[in-house]
Amino acid sequence: MSTHRPRLALTCGEPAGIGPDLAVMLAANPPQACIDCDIICLGDRSLLAARANALGLPAPHDGPRFTLEHLPLPAPVIAGKLDVRNARWVLDLIDRAINGCREGRFDAIVTAPVQKSIINDAGIAFTGHTEYLAQRCGNAHPVMLLTGGGLRVALATTHLPLAEVSPHLTSALLDQTLAILHHDLQTHWGFAQPRIGVCGLNPHAGEGGHLGREEIDVIAPAIARAQQAGMRVSGPWPADTIFTPRQLENFDAVLAMFHDQGLPTLKYAAFGQAVNVTLGLPLLRTSVDHGTALDLAGTGRADAGSLAAALSLAAELAARRHHRA
């Protein structure tokens, strides 16, 4: 029997947001699923101690399941108040976690939320965690998948204005996305032949071309190629019916064409307990299903459920990966 204990790197995210709150909450009460894991929190010791004091919790200290890797902040932090001087520090946490995975010190990365706007305000071009990780991993093709409430919803495109979605839905993009989704459903979740339902882009999946031709010209041919490659893929399905309970019984995952096509249903079913998983990377990464919630930072009103679920899923996936190796 394996005695390997998964080592999970937990990044604190935006220091003015609820990430530090969640870290100290989980340091005090780690998820039961992580009882046989080591959680290594990447953050600033003074920040976590101050946030713990504000929440009436013990300051995080090194113990059997939780240790802290201290990265000092450039500027003092006021809960709820963004500061561009700390923007680079947020990315330094991610870089430290990535490097730790490459060196074999960590088995997975679990990320608390970051604030895209302040990173861009600091003069650093930043679209999101997913895209940053992909770039740092040699321009890998990332696929964002959220899971919760019995659903797994992946996205063909992520953080794009709606007007840019259609031009980005190319044959190459869908071929690569379906291949990664199929592969990672097998390797991460153990599905021998995962069943994937693919959404159309337009209302009624284009209504035979009367409401748009993306389904005919791009999406259906990609599905056909995936089927020819031996994948159990079907569609394009109208997005307003594929997410009904009867239809969902037929799928292990759904591929939505854009962010707000797939995620509202999942977040309605599981907000606060859902987990964001980045597929297509050479490392494991999970994250929360919410933002930085600046108005809740330091108040004690933040809910650690999603980060606890992200840690638990990272532990499960890391253990499965180690077992396969």
What descriptive keywords fit this protein?
325 residues; alpha/beta; Isopropylmalate Dehydrogenase; 2 domains; eleven-stranded mixed beta sheet; 11 strands; 17% strand; globular
Topology:
Elements: E1 7-11, H1 19-28, E2 38-43, H2 45-55, E3 66-70, H3 87-102, E4 108-111, H4 116-121, H5 129-136, E5 143-148, E6 151-155, H6 165-168, H7 171-189, E7 195-199, H8 214-228, E8 232-237, H9 239-242, H10 245-248, E9 253-256, H11 259-270, E10 275-279, E11 285-287, H12 305-324
Parallel strand pairs: 1-2, 1-4, 2-3, 4-11, 6-9, 7-8, 7-9
Antiparallel strand pairs: 5-6, 5-10, 10-11
Helix pairs in contact: 1-2, 7-8
Structure explained in plain terms:
The model has no long low-confidence stretch (mean pLDDT 95). Strand 5 (143-148) and strand 6 form a beta hairpin. With 325 residues, this protein is α/β, with parallel strands linked by helices. 40% of the residues lie in helices and 17% in strands. It has twelve helices and eleven strands. Helix 1 (19-28) packs across helix 2 and helix 7 (171-189) packs across helix 8. The protein starts with 6 loop residues before the first strand and ends with a helix. It has an eleven-stranded mixed beta sheet, with helices on both faces. The chain has two domains: 1-140 and 281-325, Isopropylmalate Dehydrogenase (3-Layer(aba) Sandwich), CATH 3.40.718.10; 141-279, Isopropylmalate Dehydrogenase (3-Layer(aba) Sandwich).
